[in-house]
Structures are given as C-alpha cells and as structure tokens.
Amino acid sequence: MKSMGASQRRPIYMDHHATTPLDQRVFEAMVPYFLDEFGNAASVDHVYGATASAAVDRAREQIASLINARPDEIIFTSGATESDNLAIVGVAEHQASKGKHIISAATEHKAVLDTCAYLERRGWRVTYLPVDHQGLIDPDDVRAAITPETVLITVMTANNEVGSIAPVAEIGRIAKEHAVAFHTDAAQAAAYVDLDVERDNVSLMSLSAHKMYGPKGVGALYVRNRNPRIRLEPMIHGGGHERGFRSGTLNVPGIVGMGAASWLCRDASIEATSIAHLRDRLWSAVSQSVPGVVVNGSPERRLANNLSITIRGVENRSLLIALREDVAMSTGSACTTMKIEPSHVLRAMGRSDTEAHETVRLSLGRFTSCDDADLVAERLCAVIPSLRRLSRIA
Ligand SMILES: *Cc1c(COP(=O)(O)O)cnc(C)c1O
Q1: From residue 298, how far is each of 19, 66, 92 by CA, in Å?
Q2: Domain 6-16+267-393 CATH (choose: 3.30.1300.10, 3.40.50.2000, 3.40.190.10, 3.90.1150.10)
C-alpha cells in the first residue's frame, strides 16, 4: 500500500463534535493491551486476567475521578449511545410500577430521543421540554413538568450541534427535591467542561471515549450507588459483568484508552480556555469581514470548541463542497447529516428550514493550532462572498 505523501495536505479538521482524533498518549497506553496483556479481565485466576483486571480498575478510577464519582459507579459500555439506552430504558423498566413518565428536551441527541420514542411506543409518556432561541431549557419548565408518575429526567449537559450548556446544577437540584432520577448525556462536555456528579446531583451520566480523544466503541455510564442508589434493569444479559448492569467480556484496550483519555482531560476547563480563544479568534475574523453571519447557541453558556454559524444566502452544502479541500466541517450532527431533514435542534430553537440549510458547524479541538483557525477564517471569508454572488445569479 502506498502511503499518502506528507506534502498531500488534508483539510483542517473542524468536526470534533463528530469524533476526536486519538491522542498519541492514549494510543501508547492502549498498545500493550492488544498484545502481551491480552487477558480477560474476568478471568483473574492467573496473571493474564489479573493484569487486565488491574488495568480496568485503574481506568475506572481515572474516569470516576474526572466526574467526581466512585470507581464502582462506572459501568463500561460500547459508547454513549448504549449508555443513553441503558440509562433511560433501564430506569424506565425498573421503575415501571412507580410511574411511566419521562421528561426530556427537544434538542437531545438521537440516542436519547429515539430511546424515548421506543418507550412511548410501549406505553410510557414523554414530555419534551422546549428550548429558547439559544437552545437552553428553563429549569422552571422542568419543575412544572414533574408529576407523581415521573421517574426520570434526561437532559444533555452540552448540545452536539450548537454547543449550548444546560443548567445541569439547577435541574439536578429540582430532580433531587422531587426524588426523581436525573440522567445527563455528557458526551460532548467531558473534554471541555468541569463535570461533578455530586455538586450537580446527577444520578446517571453518559460518556463516550471518542469524543474525548480516546478510541471509538467504548463509553461509560455513571450510575449513582448511594444517596440515593439508582436501580436499573440491564439490557444485555449474560455473565453478570459490570455488577450485572452490562454483561459481556470487557474491551480492555478500549477501556484502558478511555481511562487515559479521562486522565488527560482532568484539566478540561483550562484546556477549554485556550480552545475558546482560538474559536473566538476565528469567529471575530469571519464576523468582521463578512456581513450576514450569526452564531447559533448561547454566547455565555457554550462549549469552548463549538462554532455553529448561519450564513445568510449561502447553502451549507455548497459551502462544504467549495471548501472540501481546506476544511472538514459539518452541516449538523453526524447522525442527521445522513438525512435531508433540517436539524431538529435548530428547529426547536425557532430557526426556519432555510436558516437550518444555511448553517454549518465548526468544532475545534485539542490539536487545532492558531494557524489552523486563521486559515479556516481566511477560506470562509474568501468563499462566502463568491457563493453569494453565484446564488444571486442562479
Ligand atoms: C456522539 C454522541 C453520542 C453517541 O456516542 P457514541 O459513543 O458514538 O455512541 C451520544 N450523545 C452525544 C451528545 C454525542 O455527542
């Protein structure tokens, strides 16, 4: 196989919400567990299994420490999709005799929305809270939606399209007051936001390694073990791994990678400051040179690496094609870009279908350089006016 010449420049990666590159240090931590240390973490009668088991324990500690949990509260899964499914269906089924009402939000990830829809088809009632024009839900709406039947509130920590950061602490307080379990999908937040399940009264939290510079195919679900203990119905049955919540031989290299990735995210809020600086530099260059461009989401409560912009008079697909050699960006979330439908997130924020089709999502990351940000800004500034001229002629 011929390797790609170093001179063959690839587009600058501006799609960290879809997935992040693996950190070299994470890769190096994983390598031994593919080769010499191949043991099954559940077969601890010999050194092979014991070594694997010790590595899993270490990863559990690293992930727990990132979110201020205890190691025995971390359940390994295949990713945030599975964690969301297990949290929502697991609580719903376990609590079915208490009530069949769930509160969620209109802007959740499909892994949450489609799981809620599945439960609706099976007799549960789901309230989808609206968001304001910045994509934020009002904690008072959460309070007002709670009924004696409510068993779960599921609201994401940070949105994967527009980067809005939910009032998680307020929702957690309300959930605790009403003794309702609170699940939050924190997949997008883990690398950039200081997470604390104790401070924020979170009952369940979904995480994904590949959104935090770890490998794909591994994630975790935090399940509160005390004060109060959360009970779940498992979805995958078998050997009783992960305290019976999730059977199946553990993906040891992946788990080691997720642990290392979590360790490297321990100063998330410091790293976020420098990424936000680049994001703001990119935005100010674009906004100063091109009129008719607006940022979506909240100016204050937003992910450091997110820049969702609507460019009046420019179809997002045309922009992506025009810049495909230079910038790898996205029209929306990775899952909705497969469809023609406009983003459900922008719709819920009150944007028109036209505006949704004029929106692109740029997401920066740990390895984005200042030169990258400047080059992306320069290309956007160069291409947008010419696309506008073209669309006026057409
Ligand atoms: C990426 C993502 C998921 C899905 O995670 P996987 O690990 O790819 O299954 C779920 N929720 C949010 C908010 C995400 O960004």
Answers
A1: 22, 25, 32
A2: 3.90.1150.10
Determine the topology of domain 24-264 in CATH: Aspartate Aminotransferase; domain 2 (3.40.640)
Q: How far is the CA of 250 from the centre of ligand 1 (A)?
A: 20
Residue 187 Cα to ligand 1 middle (Å): 6
Catalytic residue among 116, 265, 335, 381: 335
Active-site residue flag, 335: yes
Condensed to tens digits (0 to 9), the pLDDT of residues 11-56 reads 999 999 999 999 999 999 999 999 999 999 999 999 999 999 999 9
| CA 190 to centroid of ligand 1, rounded, Å | 12
- 14 burial (CB, 10 Å; 0-12 / 13-18 / 19+) is buried
The boundaries of every CATH 3.40.640.10 domain in the chain are: 24-264
Buried b (16+ CB within 10 A) or exposed e, 137-172: bebeebbebbeeebbbbbbbbbbbbbbbbbbbebbb
Sequence-ordered list of residues with C-beta below 8 angstroms from that of 145, at least 6 positions apart, any chain: 103, 127, 129
Structure tokens at 222: 């935090």
State pLDDT tens for residues 189-228. 999 999 999 999 999 999 999 999 999 999 999 999 999 9
Sheet architecture: strand order including 359-363: 293-295, 306-311, 359-363
Tokens found for residue 224: 């509160």
Residue nearest to atom 12 of ligand 1 (CA): 187
| Whether the model pTM is above 0.85 | yes
Ligand 1, CB within 6 Å, residue ranges: 79-81, 109, 111, 156, 160, 185, 187-188, 208, 210-211, 219
Q: Token pair of 393, please?
A: 């002629």
Nearest CA to ligand 1 atom 7: 79
Ligand 1, atom nearest to 186 Cα: 13
Residue type, 27: F
Domain span(s) for CATH 3.90.1150.10 in the chain = 6-16+267-393
Token look-up 């045309």 returns: 318
Site to substitute for ligand 1 among 20, 115, 193, 208, most atoms within 8 A of C-beta = 208
